[in-house]
Design brief:
Layout (H helix, E strand, L loop, with lengths): L1 E10 L3 H12 L4 E2 L5 E6 L2 E6 L5 H7 L2 E9 L2 H11 L7 E3 L2 E6 L9 E5 L3
């Protein structure tokens, strides 16, 4: 069902400092995203996305810095949704984001982790 790990999103108050920590401690190169308060660290075909600024300020105020999303790719999002429903897990309706169909799992059903599962079906 789940095909691969796509990315982790991490909220940070200081993007440059967070990028420096990943570079100094893990040897990762963070590439700044033009026009956004984000930096991307590529790891194989997956990534760690460091996010700062207004988009994550409410999350940081509420929960502190750290993990804000885990993204997984599925072959068939409808099958994943059905399996989650059979298991009694809470989720939001499937929505379209560009070329992806996205299913958001309620964090209470995912060990308090914001979990997003997507597929690339039309």
């Amino acid at each position: 069902m789940i095909k691969r790990f796509e990315r982790l999103e991490i909220a940070t108050a200081d993007l440059d400092d967070a990028a420096a920590v990943y570079a100094a401690n893990f040897g990762f190169n963070a590439r700044r995203v033009a026009g956004a308060d984000e930096a991307v660290i590529a790891i194989g075909d997956a990534e760690i996305r460091l996010r700062a600024g207004a988009a994550v300020a409410p999350l940081i105020a509420r929960n502190g810095e750290g993990l804000t999303a885990l993204w997984l790719e599925a072959d068939d999002l409808d099958a994943v949704a059905a399996a989650l429903d059979r298991a009694g897990l809470e989720r939001r309706p499937v929505r379209r984001e560009g070329r992806w169909r996205v299913l958001e799992v309620d964090p209470k059903s995912a060990n308090m982790t914001p979990l997003f599962i997507f597929d690339r079906r039309p």
